[in-house]
Design goal:
Number of helices: 7
Shape: globular
Radius of gyration: 18 Å
Helix content: over 70%
Structural class: mainly alpha
Oligomer: single chain
Length: 176
């Protein structure tokens, strides 16, 4: 998985420049779903061996697609903050997914967990194709106030019971 993940970075970068994050991410998520499906139905050593590189390929574009979308859709002066927020939310998701995955592992087993992991990327791929705009953010809608977006994010995280500290003052950040 790691070898495939690393080897896919340069081709994925080229594909992102040519086709954009919406198309690339939706296609590689299907590869991740196929890899998880191979794990779920495996009855020998070869199916997981084939599924693992597919999962690696499928998740290889997750970070780079997000970074590319930010560069295309937001003003240049906001990209560092948004990159940080994306990394923070990704890490928060990884940390908070551990307990539910453990509970599912106990209740439905590892095959059931991989069946669920097959459905999630498939749904995300369809959602990316249907709901993500083809055009950069600033061409589709007027710029929104970034401070309001960050305030809503912080409020949602606080309601969820998470104490999140950001290295910025929400009131001092806004789009021009």
């Amino acid at each position: 998985m790691r070898l495939t993940f690393a080897a896919a970075q340069i081709p994925i970068g080229i594909l992102l420049d040519r086709y954009g994050p919406r198309r690339v991410q939706s296609v590689v998520l299907v590869a991740a779903a196929a890899g998880a499906a191979l794990f779920a139905v495996s009855d020998n050593f070869l199916l997981p061996l084939a599924g693992r590189p597919l999962i690696g390929l499928g998740v290889a574009a997750s970070l780079t697609s997000g970074l590319k979308a930010l560069v295309l859709w937001f003003p240049k002066d906001r990209i560092p903050l948004l990159n940080g927020l994306m990394i923070m939310l990704g890490a928060l998701g990884a940390v908070t997914a551990t307990s539910p995955a453990e509970l599912l592992l106990v209740s439905v087993g590892w095959r059931g967990l991989f069946e669920l992991l097959t459905a999630r990327p498939s749904c995300r791929s369809r959602r990316a194709v249907l709901q993500v705009s083809r055009h950069p953010y600033h061409l589709v809608v007027d710029r929104i106030e970034l401070a309001r977006l960050l305030g809503a994010l912080l409020a949602a995280l606080e309601r969820a019971g998470h104490n999140v500290q950001l290295a910025c003052s929400v009131g001092a950040v806004s789009c021009r």
